[in-house]
Write a structure and sequence with these properties.
The protein has 332 residues and is α/β, with parallel strands linked by helices. It has 13 helices and twelve strands. The longest helix is centred in the C-terminal third of the chain and has 17 residues, at 295-311.
């Protein structure tokens, strides 16, 4: 049986007192050289801290609750949210934290006491989270950070993608390539990310004396199946567009499948532009032009902000906007 290392073992190996070891492992301060000796000894002994004992002393569990909008399921493997969650987990590990995943509908109906029993040190709330859920979390007095949230909340720390500018730049790219009759496949516009993308798209058209044909504006859920449905309707349109801009890559990929199956040549007969730059977009046929969203940066910054708030509950950083950039591939 493998021997479990203890604080006493670390103290003996590093040549310092047990109390000094305990203080350092709990995040306390001491001389840099002493701290390094203790950390080196702990690493050599493969020391695993007792989370329960640590929580009783520090009043912290070392756990972050990541709450995500359930409609984007399965969210662990979702090509957009999966990367954000992975980056949160990676950054949390750097700071000595673990994460637990929760869906909005799992905790939306909880009482305050039930939510408190999770004993997390902080929350990261991703996507279309309701104001009711945010207000419930506020009552726990546990710090939280919002990612791409659609609810207007005062005095909240937000991390969002620059959806407006990304969509504007993508529309300008299509216009500059000579496409003037552009259809738009949109996710639900009650979600602020999709609303900002539609606004940016329409602003670019307006600046160039163009407007979207309402017959070629399709608003639905943000799935590949909805992209397929929208593309089928486009094929039946009396005013066939020369380009399609989808507000996310999943919808664009669905549209590509329909157009390829119908015998259309992309981009000669119709161009297709997506948004998000998910991993698979570079492997579609043809490869998908899209708007790159830095999902790793979004998750990392959100976790860094939460870590700051957990050490200073009154710290509010308001809104951080992550720049987006267009990625030109063969579909345009």
């Amino acid at each position: 049986m493998t021997k479990i290392s203890t604080i006493n073992d670390i103290a003996k190996l590093s040549g310092v007192s047990k109390s000094t070891v305990s203080r350092v492992l709990l995040g306390g301060s001491c001389k840099a050289a002493t701290k390094q000796k203790i950390l080196d000894a702990a690493r050599k002994l493969n020391y695993q801290p007792n989370r329960l004992a640590r929580a009783m002393i520090t009043k912290k569990t070392g756990i972050i609750g990541v709450v995500i909008y359930r409609k984007n399921k399965p969210f662990i493997s979702h090509p957009f949210y999966g990367e954000i969650i992975e980056s949160i987990a990676k950054e949390a590990k750097v700071e000595g934290y673990s994460i637990i995943m929760m869906a909005d509908d799992e905790i939306n109906n909880m009482s305050l006491n039930q939510l408190i029993q999770y004993r997390v040190d902080g929350f990261i709330l991703i996507g279309y989270i309701t104001v009711e859920l945010i207000n419930l979390i506020k009552k726990t007095e546990v710090p939280y950070v919002l990612i791409n949230n659609s609810t207007n909340v005062e005095d909240a720390t937000n991390v969002i993608n620059d959806d407006y500018k990304g969509a504007y730049d993508a529309a300008m790219h299509l216009i500059q390539k000579g496409y003037i009759n552009i259809a738009y496949l949109s996710g639900p516009i009650e979600h602020m990310s999709y609303k900002r993308r539609l606004d940016g798209f329409q602003a670019a058209l307006h600046e160039n004396g163009l407007r979207i044909n309402q017959q070629n504006l399709y608003i639905s859920d943000s799935t590949a199946e909805c992209g397929i449905d929208g593309a089928m309707k486009i094929l039946q349109s009396k005013n066939m567009p020369d380009a399609v801009f989808a507000s996310n890559d999943m919808m664009a990929i669905g549209a590509l499948q329909v157009f390829n199956s119908s015998g259309l040549k992309i981009p000669n007969d119709i161009a297709v532009m997506g948004f998000d730059d998910i991993y698979m977009s570079q492997y579609t046929v043809p490869s998908l032009s899209t708007v790159h969203v830095d999902k790793i940066q979004i998750g990392t910054i959100a976790m860094k902000k939460l870590y700051t708030m957990m050490n200073d509950y009154n710290h509010i950083d308001e809104c951080t906007v992550i720049p987006a950039k267009i990625v030109i591939r063969n579909s345009t």
